[in-house]
Structures are given as C-alpha cells and as structure tokens.
Amino acid sequence: MTASIVDGERWLAREREALAKVDLKPEARSVGRVEAIADGVARVSGLPEARLGELLRFEGGRMGYALSLEADAINAAIFDEAEAIGVGSLVGATGEVARVPVGPGLLGRVVDPLGRPLDRDEPVAAEAFLPVERPAPAIIDRALVEEPVATGVLVVDSLFALGRGQRELIIGDRATGKTAIAVDAILNQKRSDMISVYVAVGQRATAVERVVEAVRERGAPERCVFVVASAASSAALQWIAPFAGFAIGEYFRDRGQHALVVIDDLTKHAATHRELALLTREPPGREAYPGDIFYVHARLLERAAKLAPELGGGSLTALPIAETDAGNLSAFIPTNLISITDGQIVLDSRLFAADQRPAVDVGLSVSRVGGKAQAPALRAASGRLRLDYAQFLELELFTRFGGVADTRIKATITRGERIRALLAQPRFATLRLVDEVALLAALADGVFDAAPVASVADARARIAAQLDALAPDAVTEVMTKGTCSEAARGKLVAAVRALVGTGA
C-alpha cells in the first residue's frame, strides 16, 4: 500500500513537471462561417479582423482570399474546386497574403499562380516566397531605359525598338499573331542574359502547350518560367496570375538580373476581374467593368522598371497582350492599356489575311522609347526605313488603278515592295542583331532593288551563314559592341550583295 502511494506521488510529480513546460497562455481565434457560395465566390461572416487580400482557409483544406470587405461579411474568391465547401462550413483567417515561390528553382518549370507544379510531380525548389501584390519601384529608384531588348523580329527591332524596363503593349484582333511576336521575343533571349516569364491567363490548354513546346524546342527553357492559369482554372487563379508572374520576375530584377514578362492576355484578365466584381455586387461602369479596372492594370504594369545602379541595375520588361474586336482601339480596355504602357505594337487583321506577317500596322504602332534603347548599329541602318515605307504605302493606294510614268515614283514603289518583303518574317525565325543590320544596310544601298522580290525572303533565310562565312570580323564587332564602322558596314553589304547575286 505504501509503495503504491509513493509511485502515485512520483507519477503526479512527473505530470506536474510536464505541465509546467506547456504554454497555457490564452489564445483567441476568430472563426467564420460560409453564408452563401456560388460560382467560386463565398460570402463569409464572422471574421471582423480579416484584411483585404488575406488568405482564408476553408473547411476541407480549400484556400481562398478576401476579395472585398463589407460591413458584416467578406466576399472570398476560392482558388480551387469548391465542391467540399458548403453553407455553414467553417472558415479561418491565416494572417497571410497570397505568396508565390521564387528563385532559380522555378526556371524551366510550368507552375500555377501559387507555384504548384503542373509539369511533373517534383515540387518546386523555392528560395523564398514573395507576395503577389508588391509596390512598384519609386521614381527615385529607377534609371533611364537605355539598354535594348532584342526580339529578333525585324519590324519590331528596327521600327519600334524595346528597352529593358519598358512596357510595350501587343494589341490586335483575335488570331492575328500577337502571341507569335511575344514567343519570338522569348526565343530570341537564348542569345541574351534575360530571364523570360510567360504568363497564360484564360488561354486554352492546347495553346499553352504549343508555346511551351516551341520554347523547349527552339529557345532556352532553362531560363524560362511558365505561369499557367488556363481557361479551366478558377477565376481567382486567373486574377492573381499576372501579379504572380511579375513577382517571379522581380526576384531576378532585384538581384541585378534582367527579366521579360509576357502576359497573355490582359483582356481575359479584365473579363475575370469584371466577373468577380459582378459576383460581389460591385457597381458596374463602362462596358460593365468596375471602376477600378484601370487601377488594377496600372499597379501591375508600373512594376516594370529599370532599377538605378545603386540598387543593382536590374530590369523588368513587360509585354502585355490585349485583344480588340474588329480593330476597335477605342474600346475601354484597349484605351486603358494604351495609356498605361510605353507604346503599342498594333496588329491588323487585313494585313494578316494578306499574308503580311507579322501583321504590324506601322502607322498605328509606336514605341515611346524607340531609338533611345536601340543599338547604335541598328539605329544607323534603320534611319529612313519607316518614312520610306510610309511613302510607299500611300503611293501604292494612288497607283493601284493606273500606270506609273514618273521614274521617281517607280523607284519608291520598287523600294517599298522590297521593304515589305523584308519586314515579313516567318515564326520562330528570329534574326541576330548583325543579320538585321546587314539586311537594312543592303536595302538602303539598293542591293535588293534590281533583284526579284522573292529573293528577299531567300536572303533573309540564309543571311546568318553567309555573314559568318564572308564577314566574321564585322559580325564580331556588331554583336559585341553594338556598333558598325564603315569598314564593317561595307563587308556586311558586300556579303548580302553576293548572297542576292547567287540566289537570284
């Protein structure tokens, strides 16, 4: 009996010692409930301290975020399928905002906007997690946009040059080659040090697969990240996708590197924002879009910037894509994006139907950085190109129904036809800087004037091998320094002349 009492006292002492190590501080936890749910949006009550954009955890493990706050309820957008969530389900606030994994471990991967892998089961090796919503760099933290972004597309590089840190809108009707220009720009970065981030918003899965395969076959997939919120994804994932893509690009920018972000496309993103706004009973405005749609895209695209040297000198360049209906650039979303960005590349459906591809409308397209970010060699070679082409297009209209007797007009028409043939370029056939300089210099010197129009395409296809064989010193000078001396220019033009002569 005495032994039992002793054992009991020992057990009690051990329990008291273990209990003394337990933190028994009072803890308050707010728990809400789902009042209503439909179309991927839940109305939640009972979380008075929740913040806008805060992640919410629903019963069953589903996640969402606070889309809008009302006096007595929260409208929450749910990231994934919502079958497990019903009226009365418990909801907890996490105290965290939506974050995306960032770091070199994402390179070559296909992920969703939350960083979950879509290409294989292997998890993403994240170096850090950044909020999808981040403030844009202040004006004092930015540097001038002076370094070029070579797209390898001659009409873009020569007439509407892009700079690192710029925001250039690609806009046009459906199926006019908008994505093709952006993908060519990504493919061409295999020759540069830029990291590419392709963000698919509301696109068909097959279209996204074609882009991924094109980059894997012809580009540098080890320096690309694919963020995919396809048409089958929830509206919440589609909404945060562009912001997640920018956060991934900002990781590299903030470390002194250079990143290119393609958003395909912001028209579908605007439609998703309108859908969520209407579901949460926000007042509709023009074309039923809520009044804050301009601010949504402005705060997104303002994050593209060239940082000052004291902050590392990194850059984030944005190529947003937008779709028009029947070429209507004055619609609400196109006018918003045009006013936010630093220029636009406008694609024309009539040019596309006429087999002029890329179908860039040189009259409506513009780059507000332009020659400031152009390589000196290319700037010198493309001096009068836009003016000569514009004169040709205008004269072509007037001479379509009658003969041309004036010698000067005939020469302008001849030169213009060669310019048009030179600016036409197949997909996935990007040009090096030296190739573009050589072709434009030869055009300016009249090398193509006496040759058939068909020879222009043949010369463009074989130009790289020709220059490497006949003018290696000039190739090295242009590619390393970005300049072209008179001696180098002469060698390049001579190489093209020989090519046209053999190909005629």
Describe this protein's structure.
This protein is an alpha/beta fold and 504 residues long. The protein has 3 domains: 31-96, Beta Barrel (Elongation Factor Tu (Ef-tu), domain 3), CATH 2.40.30; 100-374, P-loop containing nucleotide triphosphate hydrolases (Rossmann fold, 3-Layer(aba) Sandwich), CATH 3.40.50.300; 380-503, Up-down Bundle (Lysin), CATH 1.20.150.20. The protein contains 16 helices and 19 strands. Strands 8, 12, 13, 14, 15, 16, 17, 18 and 19 form a 9-stranded mixed β-sheet that branches. A 6-stranded antiparallel beta barrel has the order 1-2-5-4-3-6. The longest helix is centred in the first third of the chain and has 19 residues, at 2-20. The radius of gyration is 29 Å and the shape is elongated. The termini are far apart. The model has no long low-confidence stretch (mean pLDDT 91).
Main attributes?
single chain; 504 residues; alpha/beta; Elongation Factor Tu (Ef-tu), domain 3; Rossmann fold; Lysin; 3 domains; nine-stranded mixed sheet; six-stranded antiparallel beta barrel; 16 helices; 40% helix; elongated
Report a brief summary of the structure:
This protein has helices at about 1-20, 155-160, 180-190, 205-220, 235-255, 265-280, 295-300, 330-340, 350-355, 375-380, 385-400, 405-425, 435-445, 455-470, 470-480, 485-504; strands at about 30-40, 40-45, 55-60, 65-70, 75-80, 90-95, 100, 110, 130, 150, 160-165, 170-175, 195-200, 225-230, 260-265, 305, 315-325, 345, 365.
